[in-house]
Design a protein that fits this description.
This protein has 19 helices and two strands. The longest helix is centred in the last third of the chain and has 132 residues, at about 460-590. The chain is mostly helical. The protein has helices spanning about 1-10, 25, 30-45, 60-70, 85-90, 95-105, 110-120, 130, 135-165, 170-195, 200-255, 260-300, 305-330, 335-385, 395-455, 460-590, 595-600, 600-625, 630-660; strands spanning about 665-670, 670-675. Strands 1-2 form a two-stranded antiparallel sheet.
Length: about 675
Amino acid sequence: MSDQLKFIVEKLNKEPFKKNFNLITFDSLESMQLLQLLSDVLGEIDPKHVVDIREELPEQTAKRMLCLLGILKYKPPGGTSDLSTFRQGLVIGSKPVIHPVLHWLLQRTNELKKRAYLARFLIRVDVPMEFLQDDAVADTNRQYEELMEAFKNLHKECEQLKTSGFSTAEIRRDITAMEEEKDQLIKRVERLKKRVETVQNHQRMLETARQLRVEKEREESLAQQKQEQKNQLFHAEQRLQRVQLQLKDMRHAAVDSKPESLMKRLEEEIKFNSYLVSEKFPGELETKKQSLQLLQKVVAEPAMGQSDLNELETKINEVNAQINQLIEKRMMKYEPIDSKFSMYRQQASIISRKKAAKAEELQAAKEEMANLERQMQQKSSQAQEMSGTEVLKGDEFKRYVNKLRSKNTFYKKKRLEIAEITAEYGILQRTEELLRQRHEDVQEQLQAIEAKKGISGYSYTQEELERVSAVKSEMDEMKGRTLDSMSEMVKKLITLVADKKSSLAPIIKDLRQLRQKCQELTQACEEKKAQYDSCAAGQESSRSALAQEVKVLREECGQEESRYHHINCMKRILDVQLQRAKEEMKMYVSPDPQERRKAIREQYSRMITEQENLGKKLREKQKAVRESHGPNMKQVKMWRDFQSLMECKKECFLRQQNQVSIGQVIQEGGEDRLVL
């Protein structure tokens, strides 16, 4: 525990808390100060919890802290069995509850900051299934889930970029390199502009290129719109399939139903709902209200000391004694009629408990059935998305099987046709091979004849010459067309460049003057910017100093206010205790015996006398028991010996009864004789 307190104090004395605590001052903090300190630590983790707890109710403070601790996945040391104790300790600011929470929060502040930040965007909103039947709500919920998934992906990318190892120096070098490349590209564009200015009709060509680029961009946007419309059509088809599936299920459920069965089912549902509304829910609501009133009463009461606790214990013991006396009196006045009524009451209570248990089981079964229906719908939608078609049922599945059988017969027929075509293809391939072989034989004979005549290679050379001449004629025609088009283009460009030169001459003259003026204005702007930066830096430094001073003063003011409230509360407690002591003294010195009997001293005196009388009676009883202990023990021993003697006689008698008679025993004069 001391190590825990040392760690908490060490963390609170550092940034960003700066509390200047030591172990003594931290351990002497009151419950309100501990709760405010816990609220400050939670506010450092989540800025929404920067709250002064004096400005909100204790229930709101406890609810806010419990909600954030649940989001941060804090588990109390005692587990689920001590949750009520943990909540009560958090409400009253108990040190055994607050200290472990502070230790856990300060151990992993950075991790909890990240978890609190992500919880604002990743805590799902549970929408009931009956609301999701509406198309607008379903679309909104789907968009919400898509945005949540997009946020997850972006956050992962951001974390990967943070841990990827990019440094600011590398980024600055990349920026400078890109700026240099940008300057080079600007210079290159200017050179190209100067070169294009000499070409005729260059403005029209640039306008044509610009229009081409615009049309390409428009084409890309139209393609994107087309893809979006396809996605919307796909989602609409999926929605239509879901609605058709629901309609089909409803029709299937309504096929075998009759009006009598529907009315009977509705009557059962109405009875069940009326039971829940009239009996179950009001009882639960009443118990909740009673527990809430008790908790509010506990919270509203001031802090109690050991004397107050002792007084409450005595009152509880007195009330318990009175209850026991009343129960004994009631049992003494027991009557048969009341026993019958009690039996009926007991049976009625058993039936009501069974009814409540069955209602809870029915409600749990309905919830489980709704969950199973929701899971079935999700599985069917997943299967539909994976396969692209809806899940078939009943008659549709039979029709699908018949369709598959017809397709199977059609497939077998086509397979036979393919086998015939394959056989015919083999025959044609063999014919082609024979013809190719015959052609090769003819070519060999022709080459042999050419060699015999002394003109070997004549046929091959003639074929090559014909092919080359055809290619040459095509190339000549293409060159002629290209030269004509190039000469026409050159003439057009020359005329266009001359026109543009004459039209751009005055504009270039004005542009030179504007460039000079732009340089002057740029220099003046840089000077003004430097002055502004220096002035802004001075103002920012003075503002930060003032802000720091204001922060220190606010902290001092808050400490003084908390000290004032603490002293005021202690004063009120002392006043109440003093008033109670005065009333006790007044009752003690009062001449009225009734008032004097109400005093605590008199009550304790009566209790002491009663206990002394009881102790006296018990001592007398103990003395009587001690005096009669010896004779009683002797009598017990004698009874035990008598019991053992009787058992022995019984054994002998039984043994004698079971024994076979082999003679006769005669007893005379103190002698035993056996006569055979």
